[in-house]
Each structure stands twice: as structure tokens, then as C-alpha cells.
Design goal:
The structure is a homodimer. Chain A is of the alpha+beta class. Chain A contains four helices and seven strands. Chains A and B meet through strand 2, strand 3, strand 5 and helix 4 of A and strand 2, strand 3, strand 5 and helix 4 of B.
């Protein structure tokens, strides 16, 4: 008897970047970003509760924020310490509850989504490489204008490539290892230690 | 010229359950559970800050808990409202910080992992279907004895199949839709509304 082993054909993907992105950003015909339907199955980066960058304390029940990134960009960050083109970082805001079921203290996430913001790296499309999109319940969203404070704040304070890697404890060590932390961030950290 | 298209061979996976689990629980020869190395790439269920089920408030800086589940079991829960055999739910505990970088209020996750607990459904192996494993920095862990309070508390108060789906806002609607909420949980919720 003759045993024939057939090797499966090698699949080649056309791509203008080094990374094969199964989760490319998608746009409507008039340039709105399409909300990635499956972002809750992407890689979780971190969460916060009641975070605020303003001096004034936020009022009311604190909100949770959950951050996710597409799996290909996550693995590329682990490999290189920075984001490839076509990265999509999704920030989801959810309500919180404290006493409920058997919970007595602290806060857990409860109820629906209060808002979603996506930070997209698409160098052929956006000046500076990145753009923000704010979703208010819709399936697509217009780009937030570049004059908005999110752009200047991320550019001034983002630890890596205008993103807040300082708040993602699993990624920060890879940025340190690959020396991809921004000069501005390193200067701020040095000041804070004094 | 002749163009030949070769179909890749169909891969068949042997499985004793209906769900094809790429992320089966693995055990050492002496029955310890192996910590799933890639759990941070699994599906995020939710997080909490400073949660406690005791009347006494916890002391010190509050901790974040992050919960993940293997992707196959997540999709099966979405389809059926309950967990298949071989489900692994990972609870990760992390420290928090409040003022750091540009953050002024609230809390974000910071630093390393303070502990990991895994809740595994493996009916052929565990009485009642499920077992808990507490990892204290090692790559494998002994089963927590059944007399421990985690078993009785999850059995008495878990919304679905001894798990705290009441704290996972993306899954709770699927349990409601498929009517898989436990009788004990429904009774508790009814009492709380009175």
C-alpha cells in the first residue's frame, strides 16, 4: 500500500503591512468607521473605575471603562513594543453597582454600554496616523475632529505612539523592553519621581 | 495550461463533547491543573474593584478582579445560556493605583498579578462537575478541597450552573433568554425587589 501525505497549500495574504490583520478597520462609503461587532472577543487590555484626568472629581456613580485591542495588533505589540498600522483600540464605558446579589462592598460592572470610543491607526487615511471615533449607540461613527482634546492629550501624554500604555499593565513591560516609551512620557515619569 | 486547485484536507478532532474545545483543561500527572498560559487572550467577562461578599469592608488599597473564559465556552454560552463541559473561567486579581501619570481620580489597574483562581467544569473528573484551583505564582495548582466556602457559596448564589453570571453583564441577557438562571438565584432576586 502506498501512503500519500498531502501538504495543505500555503495561503498567501496580500497586505501592504508586515502584519496580517484579520480585523482591519472598515469604513462606510462616507468615511465613517464601522463599529467592530466582535470587539468583546478581542484582547482585553485593562479596566478602570471612575478615572478622570481633570482636577475636578467626577460626580455621580462612577463608571467602568474596559479597553480592548484587535488580537493581531496585541501580538504585534508583544513582539515589537509598539502598534502596527490598522490597530484598533476600543474603549467601552459601562455603569457600576455596589450592593447587589451577594456583593456588599466595592463595585462591579452592571447594565448596558454607556458609550464606545475607538482609536484607529490607519496611516494612509489619517494625518499623524491615528484618529478617534465616538459611538453613541450607532453602528458607525464620524471621525472626531482633530481639534478635540483627545488628540492633543494622547499626543502629549501617551506612553507609546499616542496611546495610554501606562494604564495597560500587561503591555507596559514590552514597551520598556523594546525602548518604545515616548520621550515626553519618560520625562513626565522622571519629574514625578523627584 | 492546467490549473489544479487542491482542497486542504479536512481536519477531524476527536471529542467526547458537542463542543470542539481548542482550550481543554490540562493536568499534571498528579492531577494539578496547568495554568492556561494564554488566558489574557481569552474572552473578557468583566471586572470589579474592591468587591467583597462579607459584611466587613476590606482594608487597604482596593484590588481589581478580571474574569476571562476560554473562547469556545463563551460562544457556547451565547448560543445556549449555559456552560459546556471543559469550561475554564479564570479570575485574575491585580493591584490598583489612583494618582499616576495624568490620572487624578478613580482607580486604574497597576503592577503585577496578586493571584489567579480557575473554576473548571470537567464532569468526568469532579464531583458536581466543577472544581476550583488557586494559583499562587506557580504554573500548576492543586484542587481546592470541596469543603472550602467557594464551593458552597457558588452553589447557593451562582446565577447559572454555580457561576456568578449576575456579575457578567454581556452574558446575563443570554441566561435570561434561555431561561437558565437557577431557581435559588431567581428567588434571591425576587426577595431583593420586595
Amino acid at each position: 500500500m502506498l501512503s500519500i501525505a498531502l501538504a495543505p497549500p500555503v495561503l498567501a495574504f496580500a497586505s501592504d503591512t508586515a502584519v496580517n490583520h484579520a480585523h482591519q478597520p472598515a469604513y462606510t462609503q462616507d468615511g465613517e468607521l464601522v463599529l467592530p461587532a466582535d470587539y468583546r472577543e478581542w484582547v482585553f487590555l485593562s479596566s478602570g473605575l471612575g478615572m478622570s484626568y481633570s482636577e475636578k472629581a467626577p460626580e455621580g456613580e462612577p463608571m467602568f471603562d474596559n479597553t480592548f485591542v484587535d488580537p493581531e495588533s496585541y501580538r504585534e505589540f508583544v513582539r515589537t513594543g509598539t502598534w502596527p498600522d490598522k490597530t484598533q483600540i476600543v474603549l467601552e464605558v459601562r455603569g457600576s453597582a455596589s450592593r447587589g446579589s451577594i456583593n456588599q462592598h466595592g463595585h462591579y460592572q452592571s447594565g448596558g454600554v454607556h458609550g464606545v470610543e475607538v482609536h484607529v491607526k490607519d496611516s494612509a487615511r489619517f494625518k499623524g496616523g491615528w484618529a478617534f471615533f465616538g459611538f453613541d449607540g450607532g453602528s458607525s461613527a464620524k471621525k472626531i475632529p482633530e481639534a478635540a482634546s483627545c488628540y492633543s492629550c494622547h499626543a502629549a501624554h501617551g506612553a507609546v505612539d499616542t496611546t495610554f500604555v501606562q494604564f495597560y499593565p500587561t503591555l507596559l513591560p514590552f514597551a520598556q523592553q523594546h525602548a518604545t516609551l515616548s520621550a515626553a512620557f519618560l520625562k513626565e515619569e522622571e519629574k514625578a519621581l523627584k
